[in-house]
Every structure is written in structure tokens, then in C-alpha cells.
Design brief:
Layout lengths: L3 E4 L3 H10 L8 E4 L3 H11 L7 H7 L2 E4 L6 H8 L8 E4 L6 H7 L5 E6 L9 E6 L7 H12 L2 E5 L5 H28 L4 H22 L3 H8 L6 H10 L2 H16 L4
Parallel strand pairs: 1-2, 1-3, 3-4, 4-5, 6-7
Antiparallel strand pairs: 5-6
Helix pairs in contact: 7-8, 7-11
The structure holds 1,4-dihydronicotinamide adenine dinucleotide and (2S)-3,4-dihydro-2H-pyrrole-2-carboxylic acid.
EC number: 1.5.1.2
GO molecular function, one term: pyrroline-5-carboxylate reductase activity
Keywords: Amino-acid biosynthesis, Cytoplasm, NADP, Oxidoreductase, Proline biosynthesis
Amino acid sequence: MAKIGFIGMGNMATAIMKGLLKEFSPEDMIFSSAHEEKMEQVTRETGVPHAGSNAECARQAKYLVLAVKPQVLPRVFGEIKDVVTKDQVIISIAAGYTISDLTEGLGGQVRVVRSMPNTPAMVGEGMTGVCYDEALFTQEEKELLHTLFTSFGKMELVEERLMDVVGSASGCSPAYVYMFIEALADGCVKNGLPRQMAYRMAAQAVLGSAKMVLETGKHPGELKDMVCSPGGTTIEGVAALEEGGFRSSIIKACDANYEKNKRLK
Ligand SMILES: NC(=O)C1=CN([C@@H]2O[C@H](COP(=O)(O)OP(=O)(O)OC[C@H]3O[C@@H](n4cnc5c(N)ncnc54)[C@H](O)[C@@H]3O)[C@@H](O)[C@H]2O)C=CC1
Ligand SMILES: O=C(O)[C@@H]1CCC=N1
């Protein structure tokens, strides 16, 4: 089987590799990263071998995932651009870098898949937006890409012009959800609930509410209305959230990450 390689083995690559280990064997993969000790630890824990250099990793992989921070990409381009060929499939998870930036950075003769996953991939519940030029890839490659991205959660094919927006919906949004869970727990602790119980209840409420959106197909507003009894307790909280600019803050956060994409290169 063609090898899947990773350059960079941090939060996201570890999450993706964990998913892939359910579908592929450790010998089907290879990786390289910046710290020898960390590489040895990952190899010990997963059985996935590591390469001596990024160039060596790139040489051995048919599917090569670039999983370093955007700021490190130019350096990695320099190390691998004489090694990669158009027979390989280059997969980027970097924010801000377009298919054309990546192709150019790698010397112009490569085929690139741009994706935006998120950290819930670590528990098999990732959400990844993916884009590529379908005409450039074989059916076998497309099937492998589907297997790869669905091994750690859900994937949706999107047009490249939407990829920076997808960053808000998939990549960044878990941070906002954790902030919401933390704040909700703080509010409950303030009124007497034990801290750990508050986290468990808040997290389960988020999980259940997300399932309601996905499984009932109902509009989120309708689901919210089902919770708000007339003259009840929830609508008091909804009014307080509106006063605090809850929805407007989230929309502004999406604008902030959308704009930041343009300043990452
Ligand atoms: N963390 C997140 O929630 C998400 C991150 N991303 C993207 O994933 C990419 C990686 O992000 P994280 O995993 O969060 O970062 P990270 O900092 O956890 O991992 C980056 C890895 O690259 C390694 N590295 C640094 N310099 C290197 C070099 N010259 N050669 C090889 N490896 C090198 C580091 O040792 C580290 O293991 C970024 O491009 C980011 O935009 C995408 C979606 C979500
Ligand atoms: O903060 C970032 O830039 C990365 C990309 C999306 C989530 N984390």
C-alpha cells in the first residue's frame, strides 16, 4: 500500500494519525518532525516509523500531509521541493495557504489537496472541509482521500473560495465551544454546583444539543424556542445573553479568523 506521510507531528497530525490507525497499519505510515525525542515517543506509542528528515519522509510518502504551523511552511517547502513529484498527493491542513500558494511553494509541479480539520479528530469526531481539483486525481486517490478524512470524523468537499470561512466552522470553532462550556460551568459553580459535575453536565448538554441540530434537521431557532417556556427561566437567560452581545460576539470572532487567514503568509 502507498505510504501516508506526515511532516510535523503536533496536535493535528497526532489526531489524524490516531484516526488512520483504525484503517491502516503503522507500516503504511511514516512521519518526520522537529524533535527527536517526540518522534521516538510517537513511534513507541503507535508503531509508526519516523524518517531521518523531512526530505526523507517526503520521498517515501505517496500521500504527504503537511502538518506544520503556517509560519514553518516556507522552510519545509525549501527542504522538500526538490523531492516531491506530481505522482504524489500533497495534503495541507494549514490555515491561510491556498492551493496555488502551496503548489508554487513546492516548485509548481505538484498536486495539492487543501483541508481544514479540527481537534475533535482526536476523539473521532473531527469536521474537515476539503478542496481539490477533481480533474487532477484518480478515482483510487479520491477514494483514499475520503477514507483518510473520514477515519477521524466527517468531511465535506467545499469550493476553495470558501476554505477561509470553513476555518471558522471547523478549525477554530472548538475553541469557542470550550469557552462556552467553561463559562457555563463558572456560572453553575457560582450558584453552587460542584465544578466537575458542572463540566460534565455542560459538555453533555453541548453534545446533546449538537445531535439535536444534526439529527432533527430543525432550525436552531426552533430548537431554542422549544427550551424557552413562556415566563420561564431560560428566556431570562436568553435575554441576558442578547444584552451581552452573545451572537454578535460570535459573528465578530468569525470575521476575526476570516481576516487573519490573509495575514498568515
Ligand atoms: N490546532 C488546531 O486546532 C488546528 C490546526 N490546523 C493547522 O494544522 C497545522 C499544525 O497545527 P498544530 O498541529 O496545532 O501545531 P503544533 O505546533 O501542535 O504541531 C506542529 C508540529 O510541527 C513540528 N515542527 C516544527 N518545525 C518543524 C520543521 N521544520 N519540520 C518538521 N516539523 C516541524 C513541531 O515540532 C510540531 O510537532 C497548522 O498549519 C494549523 O494551521 C488546522 C486545523 C485545526
Ligand atoms: O488557530 C489556528 O490558526 C489553527 C487553524 C484553525 C484552528 N487552529
